Amino acid sequence: MSLAHINIFLAFTVSLVGLLMYRSHLMSSLLCLEGMMLSLFVMATMVVLNTHFTLASMMPIILLVFAACERALGLSLLVMVSNTYGVDHVQNLNLLQC
Amino acid sequence: MNMFSSLMLASLSVLTLPIMSSILNTHKNSTYPHHVKNIISYAFITSLVPTMMFIHSGQETIISNWHWMTIQTLKLSLSFKLDYFSMIFVPVALFVTWSIMEFSLWYMHSDPYITRFFKYLLTFLITMMILVTANNLFQLFIGWEGVGIMSFLLIGWWYGRTDANTAALQAILYNRIGDIGFIMAMAWFLFNTNTWDLQQIFMLDPNLTNLPLLGLLLAATGKSAQFGLHPWLPSAMEGPTPVSALLHSSTMVVAGVFLLIRFHPLMENNKTIQSLTLCLGAITTLFTAICALTQNDIKKIIAFSTSSQLGLMIVTIGINQPYLAFLHICTHAFFKAMLFMCSGSIIHSLNDEQDIRKMGGLFNAMPFTTTSLIIGSLALTGMPFLTGFYSKDLIIETANTSYTNAWALLMTLIATSLTAVYSTRIIFFALLGQPRFLPLTTINENNPFLINSIKRLLIGSIFAGFFISNNIYPTTIPEMTMPIYMKLTALTVTILGFTLALELSLITHNLKLEHPTNMFKFSNLLGYYPTIMHRLPPLANLSMSQKSASLLLDSIWLENILPKSISQFQMKTSILISTQKGQIKLYFLSFLITLTLSMLLFNLHE
């Protein structure tokens, strides 16, 4: 693999590890999730442009759209947690109430 | 050229003169009630002449005056049918009304709106005459509705009293339910016989007459207070006593029976409807007689007595004897009106006391009223050779000797004996014994209006049966031969009822009052019929309509089916099946380790 690919792949892995291992704020995992989406976007665009695979050039755009939806959802959950507790510390999420 | 039709029309049209005078505003002076009473007595005397001509010659007349309109093939005109029924009923009704008008001159003396009262009574009489002399169903319906409206206005005479308003509304509602049957019959006749004229209907003699006769039976049930539509009649006693005497004993409530009698050519061919009327009348007469046994208001007892006698008339129609039913209508008018007038005399003398438990000892204090009350009760129960005997005994004899429903016959006989029981009860409580009313009495029956009116009806109660029976032409032949026990059935059960009631009253008069038994409560509360039927069906109807109108469409279909049900379902199931405790970091960490391990495993495996 070329150096650019390894770079992007490393960015993705770092974001993944950051998503799965975080200390106290829920916001940080959401940020890392965004980072993952961004690196995927760049990777997909690079591959499509390099191989001139024009038919698949829709794919990064659609990925971005779905990432936006998911961002909204994650933020709304964050807001719900923040409404209840004031801060979004993860240790607060031990009471599953409906 | 005889004056038959002219005199009859004259007699009917003089009744409308006092109503016309209200246009000229002569009705504001204080002699208006006397004026009305005199007009009615003149109308009575005038109508006697055509009646006697009719009795002499048997000539029936139809007067078709004015062609109102023709709707495609239906011709509506103003026509009067002066046959056996109307010719005999009109003088009887006018005589009774004359006496009642004179009575109400005394009874309503202190009422400020006495002229309006007399106008209402007169309007009622006019509409009743329209009903009785109608030759087509449309005119009959005009009279029918007219008597219903006047009944409403007169029952609610003291409209400041809530009970009176409720009773008037009740009368209208129950009559309306009967009117549905009437209109159904009118529609059927319009469709199948193309007319509303009685002559054409009877001539065509349609075959399947179940539906219109059922409609007419429903109309009679509503107007004549048969079982099922009966509660308005005891409630109608909220009106003044002259109203009860005129409307709800002699004239209006017999309109339903009169309708069925008018249609007797159709009814004699339809056995199903005859059985229905027989059973309906038998149930009514027994049920209302049972209810009359434990009432405490003297007017209510007499109202139930009226209802029971109406049931007896319907039974008579059910055994295919319309002429006997008509005879009973005429004779019943006399003594029932007199009973009401005597009770009015008692009520006014005891300062508006209507509870028989607070009367007593009037035997010596009011001799004239006592006499007429006892004679009226004896006539009601069918004492031989008083008025009631000529119709009631004939009815019982005919029922005994005809091929009829034994259960209906048994109920009629029991009701006959109960008639004697409650009559004895009235006499015992109101007249005999020691006085139970307050010492400061205003007992005075010396007014000539009162005495004359009751005296006229008294003579009628004694002699009218004999007089009418000897002067009518033969119609259906009564049964002439029967075993002696059948002949004496009515007399036996009546004497049995008298004796039983007297013995029971005398024995239990001084005993300690016990808690009412279930039978007592059943009889006193009118068989629980008003309690159930006035609350349960309206509540069910209204709540069902409210639920279907507002709840069903709006809240269920638009709100509950998808949105709220989904959210509730989700919440419930997520509580049910989640076993997590929210240790998110642990879950994420385990995910990462699994991922790393699996990638290492798969990549370094080679």
Automatic annotation (TrEMBL), chain B:
Residues 134-418 form the NADH:quinone oxidoreductase/Mrp antiporter transmembrane domain. It catalyses: a ubiquinone + NADH + 5 H(+)(in) = a ubiquinol + NAD(+) + 4 H(+)(out). The keyword Hydrolase does not apply. GO terms for molecular function: NADH dehydrogenase (ubiquinone) activity; NADH dehydrogenase activity. Keywords: Electron transport, Membrane, Mitochondrion, Mitochondrion inner membrane, NAD, Respiratory chain, Signal, Translocase, Transmembrane, Transmembrane helix, Transport, Ubiquinone. Its EC number is 7.1.1.2. It comes from the Eukaryota. Its main location: mitochondrion. It holds the Pfam family Proton_antipo_M. Residues 68-118 form the NADH-Ubiquinone oxidoreductase (complex I) chain 5 N-terminal domain. Residues 422-602 form the NADH dehydrogenase subunit 5 C-terminal domain. GO terms for biological process: ATP synthesis coupled electron transport; electron transport coupled proton transport. The keyword Iron-sulfur does not apply. It is found in: Mitochondrion inner membrane. It is a multi-pass membrane protein. The chain crosses the membrane at residues 84-105, 117-134, 140-160, 172-191, 211-233, 245-263, 275-294, 301-319, 325-350, 362-386, 406-432, 453-472, 484-502, 586-604. Residues 1-18 form the signal peptide. One of its GO terms (cellular component) is mitochondrial inner membrane. Core subunit of the mitochondrial membrane respiratory chain NADH dehydrogenase (Complex I) which catalyzes electron transfer from NADH through the respiratory chain, using ubiquinone as an electron acceptor. Essential for the catalytic activity and assembly of complex I. PANTHER family: NADH-UBIQUINONE OXIDOREDUCTASE CHAIN 5. NCBIfam families: NDH_I_L. Belongs to the complex I subunit 5 family. This is NADH-ubiquinone oxidoreductase chain 5. It comes from Equus asinus.
